[in-house]
Amino acid sequence: MQLLTYLKGRHNVSRSSDAYGNYLQIGKLLPLGEWVSVDNLLDYAKYEVLPLEPGSRDAIIIYVKYEIDKASYAIKPNNIETVITTPALQATLFLWAALGLVDIAYNTPKINAQTPSQYSGLKYVRLTPLGSYLFDTSNDYTPPEFKTIPNPVLSPDSLTIIAHPDDNTAPVMFGSYTSKMSSENAYYTSYAIFMQNCSSFMQLKNKVDAFKTALKDLEIPDNWHSFLNTMLAQANPFKNASTHRLIQIPADNINLMRLIARDAELKKYIIKAEEFHIVVFGKYEHYVKQRLKELGYLWE
Hints:
The chain is an alpha+beta fold. The protein folds into 3 domains: 1-144, no CATH class; 147-237, no CATH class; 244-294, no CATH class. 38% of the residues lie in helices and 16% in strands. It is built from 12 helices and 13 strands. It has helices spanning 17-29, 38-47, 57-63, 80-99, 129-134, 170-174, 191-194, 201-214, 222-233, 254-262, 264-267, 285-294; strands spanning 7-8, 35-37, 65-68, 71-74, 102-106, 122-127, 153-154, 160-162, 179-180, 186-188, 244-248, 270-272, 277-281. It has a 4-stranded antiparallel β-sheet with strand order 7-8-10-9, with no helix packed on it. The chain has a 3-stranded antiparallel β-sheet with strand order 1-3-4. Strands 2-6-5 form a 3-stranded antiparallel β-sheet. A hairpin with a 5-residue loop joins strand 7 and strand 8 (160-162). It starts with 6 loop residues before the first strand and ends in a 6-residue tail after the last helix. 23% of the residues are buried.
């Protein structure tokens, strides 16, 4: 569940050993070297009644929410499959791909409230000889001839990453932080792209830390350090205005509008805003209420 970064409260749900055992069971059934659709894997799990939720369904519904574009949504029985179950399996397959156990084919997903997972574009999976050996479906494994693939290179002049054409790990390594350019081995990012699915400072900080971990073996130019540090420094730029009251005068209350516009005492303590709104500073609220009482108005 930790791979589903858009989930909030996931730390309150214990990991399900049944689900991870069922992922391994699905891995053992994959035919060597043949593409299998993810939909077929999900249908098989339903047919065999194999739970794929990475935690208790009841606990997930009670404790977990998901956030997209600063909006929070509840996990319900009618959306747990698209928000939790399917993405959890897809995230596991992405992880296996990063380890070389499977090859994957996917489209870049469109993230929204209905499909919040960055893994939702995964369509097909193919078992590799290494995966077959580790899943105990073959008895021997001959490692391929070792080939050194150069590390990805972060541009010192732009927020662009160039990976080697044979680097199959780059889409997994950078997929959550960048968008792919027209060149298959080039990626770029921006504030908006990087902060996608971040709605709190801690989510952003965790994402920056995870990105730095992914880059730990690479040379990071100064412009990238500046980019990451600026995002953290500029988070939460506004002060909490909970000590102020924003109220609106009813559009049809002409007498109250005239009173507030003309009364010298009230004008000391309020600020007029758009659309008949006024702001009352918390420390002056008592005086405003008292003055309104003197003028025949009760404000709770």
